[in-house]
Amino acid sequence: MAILKETVEKRKNEIIRKLIACNMYKKDGKHLFELSLPELEHEYFKIQSKGHPHTGYGSIRWKNF
What we know:
2 strands; mainly alpha
């Protein structure tokens, strides 16, 4: 169980660093570290979607075979 918690914390920190690099520090008055992993991932996905027209659901994805 401790490994899962550590993995989630690492992922949260990674996304928080990326969001800060995009000048996002809070969401609805909450600091980023107060958000859950799914909330952080959603916010990062929204930022990525604004930056590139081919991101998002239903877009073409390259697959390596």
